[in-house]
Specification:
The chain is mostly beta strands. The protein has 1 helix and 14 strands, in the order αββββββββββββββ. The strands form 3 sheets. The chain has an 8-stranded antiparallel beta sheet, with no helix packed on it. A 4-stranded antiparallel beta sheet has the order 4-13-6-9, with no helix packed on it. It has a two-stranded antiparallel ribbon with strand order 1-2. A hairpin with an 8-residue loop joins strand 10 and strand 11.
Length: 241
């Protein structure tokens, strides 16, 4: 309505001036949320959310509601050219986790008949155990044949039992579980499984396991081929919660 005489001075509206529920959804602009800058990533543990606790507004850290996955990605090593070896060090193998999962996705090798080898170190890669490695590996071909490898004290672990002789696409993938490498009351065990592409489009699944015959903490592990290099593929290591 029009005012009579002098225009009233402006007055700031406070919450006490508004009755409960006087502002309806129709009076809230569409950009009440969308007008703000998007976070664009998973919130940090200390980022805060506004919630209603039985009608009372409260703030809460994101850490209380974030998902609790069983595997935490610690490091990714992407191969895009000739690489002689891939190692995961004391940076990844820490007391934060007891067990670890290491994966190799579509790893391509550059040499016929080379096999994947695995090494463990007690001094973060300055040296690797050369006589205490005990393992068994087994592979099954789709033509009915099978291969095996084993040792009671070798200088490495053989993850798959025979190498691909395919001239193009000597490719394999695998998973390896490493159990309590930093423990010192027992030996460090592993078990693994995977599959590789053999000549004439044959496929060979493989599996195996073993341990290093020492109770010293293992703080570095390394993968390399028996000859030649890795050409392509992705290695990852996860901490298991």
């Amino acid at each position: 309505m029009p005012y009579i005489g002098q225009q009233p001075a402006p007055k700031v509206v406070t919450s006490s001036d508004l009755a409960d529920d006087v502002v309806t959804a129709d009076k809230i602009g569409d950009t009440a949320i969308s007008g703000f800058t998007a976070l664009g990533a998973e919130p940090a543990d200390t980022d805060e959310l506004l919630i209603s606790d039985a009608g009372t507004l409260k703030r809460m850290d994101y850490s209380y509601i974030k998902g609790g996955g069983t595997h935490t990605l610690l490091s990714t090593n992407t191969i895009s050219g000739a690489t002689s070896s891939v190692a995961f060090t004391s940076t990844q193998l820490t007391s934060t986790y007891r067990d670890y999962l290491i994966t190799g996705s579509e790893i391509d090798q550059d040499t016929d008949s080379a096999t994947l080898r695995f090494f463990m170190s007690t001094d973060n890669g300055s040296s690797y155990e050369t006589s205490n490695n005990r393992y068994v590996s087994k592979g099954y071909a789709d033509n009915g044949g099978d291969t095996s490898a084993q040792s009671g004290g070798d200088n490495r672990f053989e993850i798959h039992t025979t190498g691909s002789t395919e001239t193009v696409g000597r490719t394999f993938s695998f998973r390896l579980y490493l159990h309590n490498p930093l423990g010192t009351s027992s030996r460090t065990f592993y078990h693994s499984n995977g599959v590789f592409h053999q000549v004439n489009d044959r496929v060979i699944p493989f599996y195996g396991g073993g341990y290093v015959n020492t109770t010293s903490a293992i703080n570095n592990v390394k993968f390399q081929m028996s000859s030649g290099n890795f050409d392509l593929g992705i290695f990852k290591i996860y901490g298991i919660t």
